[in-house]
Amino acid sequence: MRQAGRYLPEYRKVRAQAGSFLNLCYNPELASEVTLQPIRRFGLDAAILFSDILVVPDALGQRVSFVEGEGPRLDPLTSAADLARLDKLQVGTKFDLVNETVARTRAALPPEVALIGFCGAPWTVATYMVGGRGSPDQADARLMAYRDPDTFSRLIDLLVETSVQYLSGQISAGADAIQIFDSWAGSLPDNEFDRWVVAPTRHIVREIKARHPNTPIIGFPRAAGEKTTRYVRETGVDGVSCDTAFSLEAMATLAEEEQVVVQGNLDPLLLVAGGEALETRTRQILSTLAGRPFVFNLGHGIVPQTPPENVARLVALIRNQE
Ligand code: 1CP
Q: What CATH number should be reported for the domain holding residue 207?
């Protein structure tokens, strides 16, 4: 999950120095610094590369910007003609900058701390490319998939190919594991879920496994609910990150019956609330998943209003229970 970010004063300082958010993503020295900040402060077991899932559309030539306090904005891709304007000319150069961040970060991390690389899943990245921004229902991408499945399918194929290149570069540069973020996997009916979430993810997993057989792959099909079992079986991921709404019992069953590592799923708002509520739920997660292949994590990204001392408190709580 996002663990760097605006809740840390040291991040805000580097972010201001970098100028734009994308400048920070493409500046290996500064991006590596913000990747390391949460590790220095909290002593976590793994660092997640500082980059963004929208580096891929940017590298493909779509105009991407991040509006302070509002989130990403893209020039919406609404037709076959818009798709035809994307090209791979800049992809290598831009990905090389991210790979350099990975190499620098890996060299700076203690050997026992894992470095996680990532990409957005094709469906989730397509929702931003088509809609031009985050939306509560991903209506623009869902409509394009119904009205013009041909163009939408070519967009997804392009994203599969580019994501494989993105992830493979990160692994070659030193990422120890990778995560595929499908933050909007929950908005599709089951047939569309199989077509736009499961199939492209399976394709990416197969290609990465062929090139890097020993690198664990974690999937995050957020809000997929009962479809998560099918996702795990059919994509071949090694680990599955479970969102906040996923029940602890269902996580335990997945771990037991599907030979998959489960990861999750503390509500990030408990890190804002702190106190008893944070402690009680953390203990409940740890005791329900004890003895199973389990990675403690959040159910979604840290929010900007999180007091850093609550994160430190959570880490201490988990360490004391181990
Ligand atoms: O620790 C880290 O910060 C790791 C780097 C990281 C990751 C893994 C960032 C930096 N973004 C992401 C993934 C990401 N980006 C996802 C998938 C996971 C998730 O659902 O949170 C998504 C959907 C995005 C797109 C995006 N980028 C959003 C969400 C927009 C929406 O629809 O609500 C936002 C706010 C961003 C900007 C961004 N990316 C990363 C950070 C730290 C931020 C916040 C901006 C800032 O703090 O300056």
A: 3.20.20.210
